[in-house]
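Thread: zinc ion complex, take 2
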Amino acid sequence: MDIVGWKFFPLVVGLVSFLLFYMKTVSKLSNAECSLLSHDHYWIISKRIVTPTGVISGAVEIYGGNIVSVVKNYHQQAKSSRGNVIDYGDAVVMPGLIDVHAHLDEPGRTEWEGFLSGTKAAAAGGVTTLIDMPLNSFPSTVSEETLKLKVNAAEEKIYVDVGFWGGLVPENAYNRSALEGLLNAGVLGLKSFMCPSGINDFPMTNASHIKEGLHALAKYKRPLLVHAEKELDAESYSETRDGVSDARSYSTYLSTRPPSWEVAAIRELLEVTKDTRYGGSAEGSHLHIVHLSDARASLDLIKGAKISGDSISVETCPHYLAFSAEEIQNGDTRLKCSPPIRDADNKEKLWDAVMNGHIDMLSSDHSPTTPALKHLEDGDFLRAWGGVSSLQYVLPVTWSYGQKYGVTLNQLASWWCESPAQLAGQGLKGVIKTGNHADIVVWEPETEFELDENHTAHHRHPSISAYMGKRLTGKVLATYVRGNLVFKDGKHAPAACGVPILAK
Ligand SMILES: [Zn+2]
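Output below.
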């Protein structure tokens, strides 16, 4: 450096220090926007805190985004000595819900949902983590490159933590390095279909693709999620579609996807899941059946596989537990989904399986589209997009419809928090305990509300939600994600500071 350079050296140092200070201040400011609370060390107290060992009266201490202690019988005296205490009285403090099955459709089909609207709805509904499905966005998440597009699209738009499933499709199933590239890039597991998915760039897989997928997943100890329906009579399905006179009738649609499709798919899967057993060639992998609807033969097959030692689990969704075929009105395509919602007796059997632990967890399968593609106007069940929109309401829906069956708060936490955390490999989530992320929902299980147009829905298309017009019990007061109060009394934090979750 010459003499002139040295002369300016103190000025340069001064400028750099100022810039560093400025950047630090700015980042602090933006952190403050992540939360509706101004401090990051505080206590939440309540008479009903849902812990793995039961519901306790006490306090949860939160510092730096984590739970640092859980204390029973937190007295008034201690309360006054500590400051930064939020007293929720007898409102329930529970782990935030983890939805392992949501379609946010971004990039590519943001007009269907999107990260911003979808995660706002999640936060308002007490869902603190969701795992996005690899399809309905465009392109589908089937490679390292397309995962990067997803993660970039989510940047600064997510109010809750979001993980990603990758797609297992014929194109990558036999290409181990492509699959490993996708897994190394951070997907939490894979997802595939045994029937057409409805999305052109997400073709269906057969049992041989699925076997390859499980073997690739074994060393990563991550799951394969499968849509288990297999077309047995595709011919008659298309015939019905063409010469239809009663496409507005739900029974027309129901008859196109009988329970035998689920049974056939599951039978085939169980040939492959033998490899997941202890000592098997794909030990370490796990197969998870998404949105089971048939609570008869399909469920019996799954129960048998569990007894045989297959590493297998199953979910169902609130719409299968809330509705039955008999009550679906002609033209009400909001309730079209696949597999379809079946008869009332099947619904009772599903509840029985959930209550007895044969169904391991619940998920939303939030799969919205535009009102036009849902065919709300003409009510054509055969042409309508299949998918139920429900993300914001899954907690009150499960609770409301579960009253009749005596659902407990601990069961709710098991189906919606603990088991989903295990499936998605999220060891620091799903349970209120020291060391875990402070992902918490505070809600009032006794408060009823009308789900009408006065109720603020944050989904992109509230009109397609299956639950509009229902009276529900269980109101979400506040949602915390990693210690940030992201939703309170109908308002969201100014900035979306959820974290994209990538497996390592
Ligand atoms: Zn789905």
